[in-house]
Amino acid sequence: MWARQKPVLAASALAAALACATPQGPAPAPPQPPAPLPRAQLERAAVVRAAESLVGAPYRYGGRSPAGFDCSGLVQYSFARAGIHGLPRSAKELEVASAPVDLAGIRPGDLLFFRLDRKRTTHVAIYVGGRSFVHAPSRGKRVERIDFDHAYWGPRLARAGRLLD
């Protein structure tokens, strides 16, 4: 008789132990993959990647290809590589087409506008994050990534603009 009760007691003890160790309520849901990034965020990242990949390309007045860029040609090309076509051609036209953004709120992929003669916008660059931008500076130079605090460009920064929301 004792032999018959032993398995019953052992089974009861095991059931009680499992009941204490098992959480009450429904089983937790399996982890979900991260939500997809919004389209504008993906486009911004693609613009930045394109611009950064062109660092070292030569400057060429009127240039719009890796054979040579001027400032607005670099912007057009970088945005086109991200699938965004039909941007205006000049720095001033890009400024008019973009929504003004406070410099404290800029995001990678936003445009930076410079006034080299202090009266009108004559230069444009792409903000890439980390207080730096990529631009095609001038004849005899190459596309470069530089910091906001640059002695020449920093004081000439007029405003930021956003084409991608």
Major β-sheet, in short?
Answer: 6 strands, antiparallel
The radius of gyration is: 29 Å
Question: What overall form do the CA principal axes indicate?
Answer: elongated
| Percent range for β-strand residues | 15-25%
Strand and helix order: HHEEHHEEEEEE
CATH structural architecture: Alpha-Beta Complex
Counting helices, strands and paired strands, the structural category is alpha+beta
Pick out the low-confidence regions.
1-22
Helix count equals 4
Q: Strand arrangement, largest sheet? A: 3-8-4-5-6-7
Text of the CATH class: Alpha Beta
Which bin fits the share of residues in helices? Answer: 25-40%
Q: What's the rounded overall pLDDT mean?
A: 85
Cα separation of the termini: 79 Å
The CATH topology corresponds to endopeptidase fold (from Nostoc punctiforme)
Number of discrete domains:
1
Task: Give a verbal description of the structure.
Helices cover 32% and strands 19% of the residues. A six-stranded antiparallel sheet has the order 3-8-4-5-6-7, covered by helices on one side. It has a two-stranded antiparallel sheet with strand order 1-2. With 165 residues, it is of the alpha+beta class. The longest helix is centred in the first third of the chain and has 20 residues, at 2-21. Helix 2 packs across helix 3. It has a single domain, classed as endopeptidase domain like (from Nostoc punctiforme) (endopeptidase fold (from Nostoc punctiforme), Alpha-Beta Complex), CATH 3.90.1720.
Blueprint of the fold:
Blueprint: H1 2-21, H2 39-53, E1 64-65, E2 68-69, H3 71-81, H4 91-97, E3 99-101, E4 111-114, E5 123-129, E6 132-135, E7 144-147, E8 157-162
Antiparallel strand pairs: 1-2, 3-8, 4-5, 4-8, 5-6, 6-7
